[in-house]
Write a structure and sequence with these properties.
12 helices; EC 2.6.1.83; L,L-diaminopimelate aminotransferase activity; PyrdxlP-dep_Trfase_small; aminotransferase; 15 strands; pyridoxal phosphate binding
């Protein structure tokens, strides 16, 4: 029996597990301190009333013989897939029902999609980057190239003709930097991928936060993207489904490599390894896309946007460089007075009792930077901003 020794190449623990251990140890040693957690990207507002009502109704159906449902379609119920189609259609993007695959979240699909690609493929990821992109490919033993995202390029790397990659990860708005690509910039990536026969894995988990005109919310806004891209999206941040678990992946029919449809490969993978998202959750997700649901989730999103504005205004007043905040729930700041982002983490925890995420946990280019999120309560966000002002105005 042989193990997959690629796992031994990973860091001993996941970034956020390390943060949790540090924070828990500090809290245990200082029970009198009020810790404000602005690190992990978990939402704090409840599900929209329309979603809760839909789920309650669906739960009631499951208790009646005539409306009870067992196994559902692995790729999602048509009622939800058509609701998602309508969401894209409202933005001028046409999708077919069988191009949409409902899942238990974008994180799962971003890792699981690799099942349909050979280990020999070379992967290109931005640095800094969401750790799952890197770790899942390390687990598979793939060669990984990095596209440098730095202050110099606004944390939005563009194609490098000297980098020959088969699989390209793009996250926009980006986690952790909050930077977002325009449709024109994405068009360059699409041209690059089509020229090489590469596939773009586009993570649109934060598309609902895009506020500025000209910035893309979907890679399918770009002509030709359906021939080279797969898009992942999640209701976790859009509608507060972090604990409910529902997302979706779009694999266009037009995406073919070596004469093989990637849509059909993904369907085969899902029908073999995934039993689908629960009927109750999918009814709740369907309600997100109703007129009532969209209005209600916008109220929640507005709270997170205000939180981001509060943090941004604080950093502006302190003269601290940052990106994000406007088109993203993340604020990516340069550590004031620290070159080591873990030392800054410790300093902020000890001196202000505020928790964030060290930039180095997202890659080498994250060293010296730090991520704060806008997902805390408005009260906690305001208090954190005041603590930062006091700490860095000394």
């Amino acid at each position: 029996m042989n193990l997959n020794t690629n796992y031994l190449k990973l860091n001993e623990s996941y970034l956020f597990s390390t943060i949790a251990k540090k924070v828990n140890a500090y809290a245990e040693a200082h029970p009198d301190k009020k810790i404000l957690r602005m690190g992990i990207g978990d939402v704090t507002l409840p599900l929209a009333p329309a979603v809760v009502t839909a789920m309650q109704r669906a739960a009631g159906e499951m208790g009646v013989k005539e409306s009870f449902r067992g196994y559902g379609p692995e790729q999602g119920y048509p009622f939800l897939k058509n609701a998602i189609r309508g969401y894209y259609a409202a933005r001028g993007i046409s999708l077919e029902e069988d191009e949409i695959f409902v899942s238990d979240g974008a994180k799962s699909d971003v890792g699981n999609i690799l099942d349909i690609f050979a280990r020999e493929n070379t992967v290109l990821v931005p640095d800094p980057v969401y750790p799952v992109y890197v770790d899942t490919n390390v687990m598979a033993g793939r060669k990984i190239l990095y596209a440098d995202a730095t202050e110099k390029n606004g944390f939005l790397p563009m194609p490098d003709e000297n980098a020959d990659a088969d699989i390209i990860y793009i996250c926009s708005p980006n986690n952790p930097t909050g930077a977002a690509y325009s449709a024109e910039q994405l068009a360059e990536w699409v041209a690059y991928a089509r020229k090489r026969g590469a596939v773009i894995l586009y993570d649109a988990a934060y598309e609902a936060f895009v506020a500025e005109k000209g910035l893309a919310r979907s890679i399918f806004e770009v002509e030709g993207a359906k021939e080279c891209a797969i898009e992942f999206c999640s209701l976790s941040k859009t509608a507060g489904f972090t604990g409910t678990r529902c997302g979706y992946t779009v694999v266009p029919r037009a995406l073919v490599r070596g004469g093989v449809s990637l849509n059909k490969l993904w369907l085969r993978r899902q029908t073999t390894k995934f039993n689908g998202v629960s009927y109750i959750v999918q009814r709740g997700a369907e309600a997100v896309f109703t007129e009532e649901g969209m209005a209600q989730i916008q109220e929640n999103l507005a709270v997170y946007r205000r939180n981001a504005a509060v943090l941004s205004a604080c950093l502006d007043a302190l003269g601290i460089f940052y990106t994000g905040g406007r088109n993203s729930p993340y604020i990516w700041l340069k550590c004031p007075g620290f070159a080591d982002s873990w030392k800054f983490f410790d300093y902020l925890l000890e001196e202000a009792n505020v928790v964030g995420t060290p930039g180095s946990g997202f890659g080498k280019n994250g060293e010296g930077f730090f991520r704060l999120t806008a997902f805390a309560s408005e009260e906690a966000t305001a208090e954190a901003a005041e603590r930062l002002k006091i700490l860095f105005s000394k």
